[in-house]
Each structure stands twice: as structure tokens, then as C-alpha cells.
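Risk mitigation, structural track. In case the binding assays with zinc ion fail to produce interpretable data, a predicted complex structure has been prepared as a fallback.
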Amino acid sequence: MTARRPADRQELEIRQRRLLENLASQRLDALIVSSPANIRYLAGFTGSSGLLVVGADAVVLFTDPRYGAQAAEQAACRVRVVRRLVRGGLGPTLVRSRWKRIGFEPSRLPYAVFEELRACLPSRVRLMPAAGLVEDLRAVKSPEEIARIRRSAATALEAFSRVGPTLRPGMRESEVAAELDYQMRRLGAEGPAFETIVASGERTAWPHADASSKAVAPGEPVLIDMGARQDGYHSDLTRMLALGRPGLRIAAMHRAVLEAQLAALESVREGVSAAAVDRAARQVLRRHGLERRFVHSTGHGLGLEIHEPPRLGPREPRRLRAGMVITIEPGVYIPGLGGVRIEDTVVVTAGGAEILTNSPKELLVI
Ligand code: ZN
Ligand code: ZN
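Fallback model:
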């Protein structure tokens, strides 16, 4: 059996070519790529130490000796194994090149590396911040990428349906989270997409509560926000449970959030702005008097990372395109009482949204 490659070599070369076209339109001669997810996307290398430079006449990955064999096996470009990535590799390569305007990822390149690089380069070479070039390419997924996210979502969903109904009063939140993570790995995931959230009772009012040592008590709502990372791709799912009949206010919040989530899902299709999808959810919550309790955006893109463009927020003019994979996850949070969020991972299509985490969204009463 051969090791599964991160992506087909041909697909990687197409991505590099598309990036080069975007660089040309920004009048850049090359781009230094330092984000591990972007390096993986362009070159197929999954190691954690590397710098990639993509230019018209050269695409080179610099990595250290720990990753030499892995890079030789995975990378769809030239590989240089050096002990010091900048001074021993990237710097001298840039000096020898004829590139004058070289882009870098301002939010991904550590300042110390930037300074080291600048010290290597002659004054004729300009380092230009160039944010989001690779992320823009990544926003629209290929059929192969969608297939991976689909498998990742199926894993998360199956783990949830195995563990959710086993919840009992007295179980600690962290115990439930550990069980979910274990099941996802058994089902083929490399691990959870992020630290699995299990929040119960009043803690559900913290949108990003991590699982604590608190025990789940009868009558409490439980919020589970989880996802898998499988073949490098993330999924994201939130469902609500209750141990016994939940309070009337939580039940009413749940109905409102579900209505908002369905309205937002209904609005998703190619060509619609991300802001319009956010508005669809927000309008429903306004009718229920809960708009002020909705303190985050309606969703986000996901893929090689759990949070990717586009963001589905009120001021997001970007239009959805077929092949984007996004979450739809309105929520409301009332401190001292509790919170409700419902989340699906969906593919944007020409006619609507295909839900990858399709399962019942009613409050699951155990
Ligand atoms: Zn989530
Ligand atoms: Zn999410």
C-alpha cells in the first residue's frame, strides 16, 4: 500500500499556476509562503517546518533535515534541505534570483523571520505584504477537497450519534469530549478539528466554552460543538441536547435559533453575498427579540483550516461561489441562563446549499 498523498501532483501544479497568475496581476515576481496550510495546499508538504517560494521560474520548498525524507516524498516542487531556512536557503536563493518585488504573508510570517530575511537582501529587492492570495484560491474547493470534507463531516456526525445518546447525569463535560475525540479517531480522523466543546447548564452561554470538569446535571441544556480533521480537512457541527425536559426559555431560544439557521441555509446559493446570508439569520432573531444576544457572525469557510474565508458577517460584501464550503451557525447566549447554537457544514452550489452534516436538529432530549 502506498502512502496517501496530500493531493494529486497535477492538482498541486494547477494551484501553483493559478497563484502565479494572481501574482502577476499584483505585479509581484514571487511569493514567500509561510502558512503551513498554504504550503500544503500549493506543494503537498504536510510538515510543520518549511518555507515555500513560488515564482515564475522557480518553486522551491526549504525545510530542515527532520523533514527531508518526507518532503522528498510529498512535495510537488524542488526541495532544499537546509539547517537554517532563511540564512542557509531562502535568503541566498532570493539574492541569486532576478526578482525585485517579493510578496510575503503579513499575518503568517513571524517578525523575527521577516527581519532575518530583510538582512539577507540587497536594497533593490522589496518585500511587499500580500495578504490572502493563497486563501482566495483555497476558498473554492475542488471536487477532491469536497470529498475529503464530506468524509470528515460524516465522521463527526457518526461520532456524535454514537456518543450523544449515552449522556447521563454525573458525566463530566471533559469525559464526553474525550469520548467524542476517541470515536472520531476510531472512525478515521487524524484528530478533532479543534478542541471539542462540551458545555452544560449556564456554561452554554459562553460561545467558546471548552469542556470542563463540571458534571452534567438533570434538566440542563448541553451544547456540543465538534468537528473532525480527516485527510487534512476539517468539519464543524453543533447540536444541543438536554438531560430531561429543558426549561421553557431554553426551549424557546432553541426554536428561534433553529428558525434562524433554516432561514440562513435557505438563503445560501452561488452569487448571494455573505452579508445577505448573515442578515437572513439576524432578521429571524430580531423578530424573536434575540438579535442582541447573537454576538458572532453566522458562519465561516473551512477546509485545510477550521476558519477560512469567507466570513459570513454583516459587513462581508464577498459573494458566495459554487464550491465554497461554509458553516451556518447562528447562536444566542444569555449569561446566567444559557446559550443555544446550531451549526451545519454545507457546500455552496448553483441552486442552494448541500448540507454535509445532515441530521436532526431538534433539541435532543435524553
Ligand atoms: Zn463549530
Ligand atoms: Zn464553526
